[in-house]
Amino acid sequence: MERISVGERRARLGRRHRLAPSCQAADPVEAAASLVVLHSTDPATVHLSIAARVPGSEVEATERALYDDRTLIRMLGMRRTVFVVPTSFAPVIQAACTDDIAQKQRKVLVKHLTEAGIGADLEASATWLQAVEESTAAALALRGSATAQELSADEPRLRSRLAMTPDKSYAAQPYVTSRVLFQLSADGRIVRGRPLGTWLSGQHQWSPVESWLPGGLGDKLQGDEARATLARAWLTTFGPGTSADLQWWTGWTLGQTKKALTAVEAVAVDLDGSVGYVLPGDEAPETEPEPWVAFLPALDPTPMGWKERGWYLGEHKTRMFDTTGNIGPSIWADGRIVGGWGQAENGEVRYELLEDVGTETANAIETEADRWTKWLAGVRVAPRGRRPSPLETELSKR
């Protein structure tokens, strides 16, 4: 078995993740494709991840790719997480991951509708849901784009209430609106469009999927074929990685993961005692890029690309990750995490190094911090869809 060292893995990361200066991407779409997908649970992550990899990138360029050129699309994907994906790759994500999620979530929603008395039984609730979905999709097609509130005005049944945890003191009765729109999105029928407000907003207008993909998702790939395609893309960007890494990242079953690795003829390699995988012909050492540093946002695709993170994280997990496994803003040097960053109330970027990096690297990090302060121009990025990391919290109070 060929051995791939930690140093070689870090060299690959600098090149393939577009973080070394000579390896950066030309535009937002190239940056996204290089990482397979961009995390979008926190809307700021998309813009900051691109800005870290595309020299001179501004928010407007990313918004143009998303909402004007529509070469990027925001969609539900792996682990029931929202991502920004190159539009041409969206059918792969849909068939490889989202279709399974949609099927499971529909069963859950039908159960909740029945428990709320909206349908007399599961069959009646399923019929009710289908009717509301069709009416909502038709209303959206007429409008072209719409907010959840506008669609609720067109289809009053979206204002029906669920009964969540009725036996608890914290029982809630949320409207079914967001659940129906989530289901339509998971089924690949509608997509999230422009945000309501600034680029930091987590609320979006909705549009028919045909607005991004003429003809919709078309003839969908078969699940096995799509999973093989996604596994190949992940190995290209994140390989070598273990079977556990790929299974965690995709949210697949163990059986699906093994089948996908077999389909792409993944080659087993030695990762210092663990079995990892690369694509055929990708076993050779990577040429190490020039020294580099990078400030990456919370939930950036790079630190969230593997389940087993010791080779780039070291002993810094308790400071860098929240209690649900989401990473905060991180500082990287030559393929490893060396610190974290946050912002003061006035938007100034503050940081802390968690290990000695030497004078030259420390100076480069200071320069990068100044660059990000100027890039953010007083805009303060607050955690959204996640908890702040311990280090992020500490920095915000200084």
Structure notes:
The structure is a single chain. The protein has 398 residues and is α+β, with helices and mostly antiparallel strands. Helix content is 42%, strand content 14%. The chain has 15 helices and twelve strands. The chain has helices at 6-16, 28-34, 43-51, 59-68, 90-115, 122-143, 148-154, 177-186, 223-238, 243-250, 254-263, 310-313, 317-320, 359-376, 390-396; strands at 2-3, 38-39, 72-76, 82-86, 190-195, 204-208, 267-271, 274-278, 293-296, 330-333, 336-343, 349-353. Strands 9-10-11-12 form a four-stranded antiparallel beta sheet. A three-stranded mixed beta sheet has the order 1-7-8, with no helix packed on it. Strand 5 and strand 6 form a beta hairpin. Helix 5 (90-115) crosses helix 6 (122-143), helix 5 (90-115) packs antiparallel against helix 8 and helix 10 (243-250) crosses helix 11 (254-263). The protein starts with a strand and ends with a helix. The model has no long low-confidence stretch (mean pLDDT 94).
